[in-house]
């Protein structure tokens, strides 16, 4: 699937050329890895068939969250997963950049993580360090990750409480957890501390709320951000200095 990739600000160097080249190569890349992607989507479908499961209780601490998160709130794989087109881009990005560590949080049921692992497997290098505080969801994510390969360290806990596990430094990070400006900006500060120079940091669900959009504007304007891109209005990518 072609993506609506746009440059937001900053350097138009090699990372810029790489990211904007995706649409020219995506059809061939996705055809080459069709069987692998089919296997991952099968696992996602089977997890989806398990239905909705209770949300992590940490969401109850967030006042006036845009989505209902109170006691009894439940979600399915289908509701929380990153879309297939963006996931395939993540696989390609992992193959192109070949980072020692890809960091992601949260794992949820493992959809984005399986696609990161696919890229690490194709590259035959690197590890995925992933976090999911929902113990039930984390177990499902682990089983899904194992279907792809064993290049993962998945922790049943929050990223914030376990930053010491991110080693070697991350070359790519996906922040896809609680979608509020105050939470995400605090996580971004921690991500910078565990990232390699020139690392990419990806923000999901920019259009979740006005608050998340304001968060993205602040991230883009940060002095330690060299360049920023968007996939549609949903996903933001920045390159650290
Ligand atoms: C939108 S889902 C992630 C979807 C997943 N990346 C995918 O594409 O399949 C958000 C997840 O983040 C988890 N989460 C929330 N706060 C977190 C934190 N501080 N650290 C790690 N995970 C967190 C939630 O429990 C939830 O499972």
UniProtKB/TrEMBL annotation:
Superkingdom to which the source organism belongs: Bacteria
A Pfam family per the record: Methyltransf_24
Record key words, sorted: Methyltransferase, Transferase
Record bears the keyword Transferase: yes
GO molecular-function term, one example from the UniProt record: methyltransferase activity
Protein's UniProt keywords contain Methyltransferase: yes
Any GO BP annotation: methylation
InterPro entries, A to Z: SAM-dependent_MTases_sf
Protein name as catalogued: Class I SAM-dependent methyltransferase
Natural source organism: Pseudosulfitobacter pseudonitzschiae
Lineage, opening ranks: Bacteria, Pseudomonadati, Pseudomonadota, Alphaproteobacteria, Rhodobacterales
């Amino acid at each position: 699937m072609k993506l609506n990739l746009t440059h937001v600000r900053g350097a138009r160097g090699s990372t810029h050329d790489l990211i904007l080249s995706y649409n020219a190569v995506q059809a061939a890349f996705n055809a080459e890895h069709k069987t692998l992607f089919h296997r991952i989507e099968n696992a996602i479908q089977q997890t989806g068939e398990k239905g909705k499961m209770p949300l992590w209780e940490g969401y109850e601490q967030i006042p006036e969250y845009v989505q209902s998160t109170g006691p009894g709130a439940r979600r399915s794989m289908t509701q929380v997963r990153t879309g297939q087109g963006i996931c395939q881009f993540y696989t390609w990005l992992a193959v192109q950049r070949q980072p020692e560590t890809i960091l992601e949080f949260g794992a949820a049921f493992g959809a984005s993580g399986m696609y990161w692992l696919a890229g690490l497997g194709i590259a035959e290098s690197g590890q995925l360090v992933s976090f999911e505080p929902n113990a039930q969801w984390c177990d499902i994510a682990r089983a899904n990750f194992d279907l792809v390969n064993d290049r993962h360290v998945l922790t049943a806990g929050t990223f914030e409480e376990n930053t010491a596990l991110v080693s070697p430094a991350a070359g790519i990070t996906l922040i896809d957890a609680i979608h509020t400006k105050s939470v995400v900006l605090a996580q971004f500060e921690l991500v910078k501390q565990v990232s390699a120079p020139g690392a990419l940091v990806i923000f999901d669900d920019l259009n979740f709320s006005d608050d998340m959009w304001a968060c993205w504007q602040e991230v883009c304007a940060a002095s330690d951000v060299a360049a920023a891109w968007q996939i549609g209005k949903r996903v933001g990518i920045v390159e650290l200095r």
